[in-house]
Amino acid sequence: MPETKTEEPAETESSLLSSRLLNRENGLKITLISLHGLIRANEPELGCDADTGGQVIYVLELARELASQPQVREVELLTRQIIDPKVSDDYAQLEEEISENAKLIRIPFGPRRYLKKEALWPYVDHFVDQTLVHFRRTGIPDIIHGHYADAGLAGAQLSRLLHVPYIFTGHSLGRVKRQRLSLNKDNLDALDRRYKFSLRTEAEEIALETASMVVTSTTQEVQQQYELYDHYVPSRMEVIPPGVDLSRFSPPTADWPRPAIADSLNQFLRDPNKPMILTMARPDERKNLTKLVDVYGQSEQLQKLANLVLIMGSRDDMMDLPKAQRRVLDSVLHRIDKHDLYGRVAYPKSHSPSDVPELYRYAAQNKGVFINPALTEPFGLTLLEAGATGLPIVATNDGGPRDIIANCNNGLLIDPLDDEMIEKALLRTLTEPDQWQAWSKAGIEGTRKHYSWSNHAHRYLRDLDDILQHSSVPALVSAPRARRLPEFDRLIVTDLDNTLSGDDEALAEFATMLEQNEHIGFAIATGRRLDSAMELIEQLGLPRPDVIDTDAGTQLHYGKKLTPDRSWRKQIGYAWKPDEIRKVLDEIPGLSARMTRINRSSK
């Protein structure tokens, strides 16, 4: 009889994983990158703008959990240093501890002031340059993981330059967002100008092309969102749902005290003891908050049964908010006035991170419901938080909510554009006490079973082990010991023609010297075009340069893969107007088009 193969218990698999990774010298160093948003380790300011949402919590919790694993030596989360009197001084600190073995590093790049994510694109290459300096000082990581499109582009460039394996998490994707926001919109050019969709999707394509693994939250995200991209490779996609901090998000106990945030809500409400329809989202067009107010405002039954509580970030003065957020808030307030909802809707100006779990518990205690009516939802961390506290959920039938409700069975899915479906789902949750109780219990149990950060970290490190150990990943990852620029302490730069050629014996001695001295870099500077220079290098059997400067100084490329220096191109391209120069030169008698091209190249 053939042997029966039994599956190893999770503890054994985990110990084997730890053993393999611990064989790497001193454990792993993991670099996470998240460039936009106001990120700090303590009391993160969620919802203070359109860029500071669930991704902030995701990367902080991921850093903490990975750093707690025995096979991980260090986790660093790279973000942007911000020096701006309009925001807290916390964001100017160059370094901040997240937890033991995890720290937040703020890299100075671009203007000092805070910039929304759409304004960061011109400075991403500057971040790459500054991060190379950081790595030279602190050591090159074993893995780089970029979060969102801007960090996706930066991480991909760093990965190519350093020959370090790369992981990408898109969080939300440009092509998907453009599709959803384009519904019923005539002026698509205005959308593209506001959200920089062409730059964003190009960055996502580069990240997908480079990544050895793409971490996604749901199967739907893989099949219906990433497949819209040219560099979508199904075998590199890994569905690893994020976790929820179960130490913070727990059900209310019998002796649970009335939360402080209740006072902020009660000043809005005529009958604060009614159940609560709670939503928590930054004022962003995609979050579909105006639709929720309309549904509530048009339903006498909902108004009779429950209050509507809108937690829309924090604000001191609406006029100081970015225009896009102000438009959403203006629209929400207009609808509250239109439907005469005063006394039935609460929309406090601010809340602290410590208020968030209290809000869920307060709503659960009064037999309320949490709703996420977003047009598109890559995951929906708030749904996990609500479920973990025992609050049933109603959520958009997209992305993460599908998987969460399938796993936890703690609520209903709705079409975010269907007023009647939204109303019916809320009414059912509020009027069927036995069903409410069943959903509440299922959410508490399901989140603990399927969505703990320890499960996420275990899956993450298991897949990372596959990347580091096996040759089936892209050649970048499985290459032999790489020569990397930040590790050089000197650089030999030479011309190509009649400099390296002519003495075969001396050239062989020179090549041997380079091979034996990993700290010495080798560069070629030539007026030739890149293709011409590489052809001559191959013909002569010359050592392949670590850096090559071609086209009379206008092109810089690095390493075996000839990774282009995007930052250098931008620097020398400043104020360069080739079309105007060509127009002037075309008027000069006897100057041919070929001469014009040569002249342009020599510039």
TrEMBL record:
<dbReference type="InterPro" id="IPR044161">
    <property type="entry name" value="SPS"/>
</dbReference>
<dbReference type="Pfam" id="PF00862">
    <property type="entry name" value="GT-B_Sucrose_synth"/>
</dbReference>
<dbReference type="InterPro" id="IPR012822">
    <property type="entry name" value="SucroseP_synth_GlycoTrfase_dom"/>
</dbReference>
<dbReference type="InterPro" id="IPR000368">
    <property type="entry name" value="Sucrose_synth_GT-B1"/>
</dbReference>
<dbReference type="InterPro" id="IPR001296">
    <property type="entry name" value="Glyco_trans_1"/>
</dbReference>
<dbReference type="InterPro" id="IPR036412">
    <property type="entry name" value="HAD-like_sf"/>
</dbReference>
<keyword id="KW-0328">Glycosyltransferase</keyword>
<dbReference type="Pfam" id="PF05116">
    <property type="entry name" value="S6PP"/>
</dbReference>
<feature type="domain" description="Glycosyl transferase family 1">
    <location>
        <begin position="267"/>
        <end position="444"/>
    </location>
</feature>
<comment type="similarity">
    <text>Belongs to the glycosyltransferase 1 family.</text>
</comment>
<dbReference type="InterPro" id="IPR023214">
    <property type="entry name" value="HAD_sf"/>
</dbReference>
<protein>
    <recommendedName>
        <fullName>sucrose-phosphate synthase</fullName>
        <ecNumber>2.4.1.14</ecNumber>
    </recommendedName>
</protein>
<feature type="domain" description="Sucrose phosphatase-like">
    <location>
        <begin position="489"/>
        <end position="593"/>
    </location>
</feature>
<dbReference type="GO" id="GO:0046524">
    <property type="term" value="F:sucrose-phosphate synthase activity"/>
</dbReference>
<dbReference type="InterPro" id="IPR006380">
    <property type="entry name" value="SPP-like_dom"/>
</dbReference>
<dbReference type="Pfam" id="PF00534">
    <property type="entry name" value="Glycos_transf_1"/>
</dbReference>
<keyword id="KW-0808">Transferase</keyword>
<feature type="domain" description="Sucrose synthase first GT-B">
    <location>
        <begin position="29"/>
        <end position="228"/>
    </location>
</feature>
